[in-house]
Amino acid sequence: MATDVVELILADHRKFEELFRELRDRSTDRAARLGELAALLVAHAEAEEAEVYPALKRYRKVDDDEVDHGAEEHAEGHQALLALMEVKDPETEEWESKLEELVENLNHHVDEEERTILNDAREQVADDRRAELGRAFLEARQAALDEDCGDLEYVRRIAKATADRID
Question: pLDDT digit string (tens) for 58-70?
């Protein structure tokens, strides 16, 4: 199993894209896919903010402003996720609209994070340190998953708690 934090984060990003494709498919169990996405998205963000972002800010060649911006985008993602989760019927136009808002929000974040933070980390952080960060990321992500971080009430709490980060 990979432990390089960059590779682990990229793997989660690809999983988000896969789940978005499934959520757009009206023949899938959208509620189940949304639950899976919510849990992974929240756990991923919490693990990045707890373990990865603070460590990367200590590297001079990793842009602190980009790291801070990544955390702001997590907060925006939590808001968009909550808005989608609060729509009761996945067969409505409102649900489709909220899904596209979340997709757009997350795709923007993933693109920026991959081009800036993760490229810097790949170039500036030693392999053994990236592996160490990867193990910490996996542990923090699993702890969040174990707390049922994809639950609607959990998402409400973190959306409220992080709302002040949004510019």
Answer: 876 666 787 788 8
0.85 surpassed by pTM: yes
CA-based angle 78:11:87, to the nearest 5?
A: 30
Contact 20, 105 (CB under 8 A): no
Cα(28)–Cα(2) distance, rounded to whole angstroms? 30
Sign of torsion, CA 88 100 49 41?
Answer: positive
Give the integer Cα–Cα distance in Å for 159 and 76. 8
Interatomic CA distance for residues 12 and 101, integer angstroms: 19
The whole-angstrom separation of Cα 33 and Cα 28 is 8
pLDDT (tens digit, 9 = 90+) per residue, 88-130?
999 999 999 999 999 999 999 999 999 988 998 999 899 999 9
Amino acid at 64: D
> CB under 8 Å to 47, separation ≥6 — which residues?
136, 137, 138, 140, 141, 144
CA-wise closest residue to 85 among 38, 47, 123: 38
Q: Which residue has the tokens 């959990």?
A: 154
